[in-house]
Amino acid sequence: MLHGRYRELAPHLVPLDYTNNPDIRVPLTLIITMPELKENPFRDRIVETFSEDGHGNLTFNDFVDMFSVLCETSPRELKTIYAFKIYDFNRDNFICKEDLEKTLNKLTKGELTPEEVTLVCDKAIEEADLDGDNKLSFADFENMISKAPDFLR
Amino acid sequence: MPRKKDIAVMDEVGIEVDGDMSDSDDGATPRRGNRRGGGGRGGAKGRGRGKKPASDDEDGEDEEDEEDEAPRGRRGGNRKRATKKRGGSDEDEEEDEAPKRKRGAAKKKKGKGQDSDEEEEEDSDAGRGRKGKKGGRKGKKDDEEEDDEDDGKGKKGKGKDKGKDKDEDDKKKKKKKDGSSSDSNSNDDDEEESMSEGEIARLREEVEEKKTLIANIRNKPWRMKRRLTHLKEAQAFVDKFEGALGKGKGKWARKWYAYKVMMTKKWIKFQRDFENFRTACIPWERKIKEVESHFGSSVASYFIFLRWMYGMNLVLFGFTFGLVVIPEVLMGLPYGSIPRKTVPRAEQETAQDYSVLMDFNGYCKYSVLFYGYYNDQRTIGLLKFRLPLAYLMVGIGTFGYSLMVVIRTMAKNADVGGGDGEEGEFTFAWKMFTSWDYLIGNAETADNKYASITTSFKESIVDEQENQKDENIHLRRFLRVLANFMIICSLGGSGYLIYFVVKRSQEFATRDDLSWYEKNEVEIIMSLLGLVCPPLFETIAELEDYHPRIALKWQLGRIFALFLGNLYTFLFALFDEVNTKLEEEQAIKNASIWAMKEYYANFSRLMNDSEATPPPMDPSDVIRGPCWETAVGIEFVKLTVSDIQVTYLTILIGDFARAVIVRFLNYCWCWDLEAVYPSYGEFDISGNVLGLVFNQGMIWMGAFYAPGLVLINVLRLLSSMYYQCWAVMCTNVPHERVFKASKSNNFYMGLLLLILFLSLLPVVYTIMTLPPSFDCGPFSGKAKMFDVIMETIDLDLPAFMGTLFSYAANPGLIIPAVLLMVLAIYYLNSVSEAYKNSNNELKKKMQMARDEEKNRRNNTDSTNQVMKDLEDLLPNRSLAPPPEEPEPEPEPEVKPTKTKPGKGVKLEMDVTLASANPNARGPGGRPPGPRGPGPGGPGGPGGPGAGPGRGRGRPPPR
């Protein structure tokens, strides 16, 4: 069934018979047209996070991976890990201010003024940063998320 | 202990994979290896059955030996299993374990191979620097012994069968040997018995572990391929043994077990679906969310309040109509049968006129909607329904229920308020990372979500700015005091004005030559006050410079105080009216009694017949009293209806017309209408909430005299939900400072409670003190309304109940009861005080703990294992499935910390791969020949295809 979905995205790329040719990759532009991701502000990031090559091209395994993480029964810890990766735009394993600003702008479609964005980012870091390095490490993130009531995704 | 167990699980996994990998080195792809392994096991099942009753025995003993060091032993056992798998590939290794092996009866080459393999394993273990080293070794010792014995026995049996497929047999054997006990179709009942308790226990534990692994496999941030491998391993294992451990023996027991498991799954799924369904059933959830997304939670809180009111009124409606109105309609006397159910002759001409009906006179007045229509028959219909009693009970029950619901909701909200007291900690971070709803797939919803997220950010920003603001505190204080002073002045002034006007109207009431203004002075003044004061208060409140949320509360409180004057003037006017009606009624009553007497006197004089038959008079001609209850009911209904009209018209004109004008006249106007003067209206939260609250007060007061009022109210709330939602969405603009409503809207509830209490007073007063009308309503003919209860006690309940009640009503009993209640209140109050203290204490402690944690984290440069995991997952690094990227150098330096089992395992596994592969490669030159054609038919579909094929079966339901 999932394979069907996968194939739907790029019928010309993905063969029905998957036995011989496992190295198919579906490009980012096709993946984000899925109804589940179409409206998601972080769709690019999500796909990039799950892709093996980091450019948003998904193999079928990546695709399955993505679904298994995003599905509602998947455990919180796992989601936390991937959420961290999604929000970590520049992949330096820290969520720093730029990441936050990007996140915020994606979330609000850029409707906040720059001052407000800066304020919010400062506050967020101030709240969640436990080790005082002005960026959020995974531990900070985990600690913060674990207390969030509605981290369901 | 649980942690250790975890580790054990992980070890198991690592090693098993390990075993597979080395298998695969023999030339097949890993998947093929797996498959073959699986096949071998499967095939072996058949063969291994009658094989070793004896070995089970001794195994069992071993188990008992191991029991004191269960986890380690288990690990050892697993290791052993793994080695066995690997056995085939390393046969030609030296055998230095000879002495031990002598114990085994018949030694074979394979056995040696295995042992040597185990040695390797041990080596690699050492290299790995596993933390549980000691335990591991210990376990291994046991292991070796066990292994030997096992081997020996196994060989005995196997020698007969197939020496060649030994390795697979071994693999199978380990798994199979216990499984075989449950293969009931064979002849080993005795075998079952011979299986010792310890072994069963161990197996059970292992299966449990595997199960946890399967359950947790999603938790591992591994790439899919790696996960699949592990999952397959674990699942194969569980499949084998689960049946054996099944809560009973035999096929049926296993089936039953499987069935049970399946049903549990289904049940869980059903529960989830049901939960979704219930959420979907919450009325107007979408509408409210939509409003919230555009106008913020404060406006939404009004609609939530409205919805709550609707729910409560539905219940009241159910009571009133179910127990009073519908029984009366179905079983009571029909219209026109008795005077109180008939329109009087004088009014019949106009009874159907529209204007009369709109005033709730005419036919409306003599219908089930009002008190007067109900008969005082003690029971009605076949069911002997005690309508008067039901009427009184519903009247009281309405208040009881409302009180209960309001107070319960308040308590619940207070709970919620306490629950998220932590909220301040991560507001922004949470908003940032958790606000997006990942289930949104609709463009429009997404837009709403964007809007609502932006709004909520703005709310938080306002809050934050409020916190940071601290300028001239003295000036602010002074301004606040000034503002309050001014408002108190204006409140007092309006109060005096009302008082003055009411006085004057009483004066006017005695005169006839009144102008229109003088007649309606009270109403006019009232509405003027209502019109002028709220904006005045708002202007004054600007001085105070409160946070909008607090300002809203003040505003609400002040307007409430203003309206109270309004309400009570109305009530006093009403009481005046009632008193005059009562006097009038008294006169009419006397007159009618006198007339009746006359009639009877004449009747008996003329007919010489003392039989008193009722006068042959049409019911519409009977002289009747004014029936003050119905009059009061009509007043309330009229008030409610006019309130509805005014509200709706205000929205239509004040908001909609204004919006239309501003929108379309803007093209041809000399200034910018949208930006400058009229602009669009904001949603008036305070006004609407108060309107709702006062309306509810009217309902509570009026429902006793006009049961139909509840119906009107339900309709009103229903329509205003849609109407106001529409109006707010298309004519209003969001507030300039969007602010977040306090989560528990207990303030609204508090107002409601106050109004409830205030409306309770007059109704209870009338029930308890005023005599009911003599010729209308369910209580006619009684001195007091509550006499109906006395009557019921006297007539329907057994005698001792009556005496019981009379005792209960004794002041001697009531005063102690009241005292007791006061004491209880005092006690509970002090207890809650104590709780509050300890709560604060705890909060302080938590804050301290948090600070400490901060410090601690600053100091330790924790080599965060999870971080490494993350790195591992980054694109372009070690993404290929484990077997395809052997890292040649063993990494002995890796030290998994105990605290991070997951990570430890993974690293360990990598290392396992790394170290195992070279080892395996040495002997890897061996052709896979002997093992190749496993009994299970190892061929099957080729390697690479298997991966996705299985993957397809496993993906989570989406």
Automatic annotation (TrEMBL), chain A:
Chain ranges passing through the membrane: none
A Pfam cross-reference name: EF-hand_7
SMART domains per the UniProt record, alphabetical: EFh
Matches recorded under Gene3D superfamilies: EF-hand
One GO cellular component term: photoreceptor outer segment
GO BP: calcium ion homeostasis
Any one GO MF annotation of this record: magnesium ion binding
Presence of keyword Iron-sulfur: no
Keywords: Calcium, Cell membrane, Cell projection, Cytoplasm, Magnesium, Membrane, Metal-binding, Repeat
Subcellular location(s) per record: Cell membrane, Sarcolemma; Cell projection, Cilium, Photoreceptor outer segment; Cell projection, Stereocilium; Cytoplasm
Family annotation (SUPFAM superfamilies): EF-hand
Keyword presence, Cytoplasm: yes
Domain of life: Eukaryota
All copies of domain EF-hand, residue ranges: 75-110, 116-151
Listed PANTHER family: CALCIUM AND INTEGRIN BINDING FAMILY MEMBER 2 (PTHR45791), CALCIUM AND INTEGRIN-BINDING FAMILY MEMBER 2 (PTHR45791:SF5)
Name used for this protein in its record: Calcium and integrin-binding family member 2
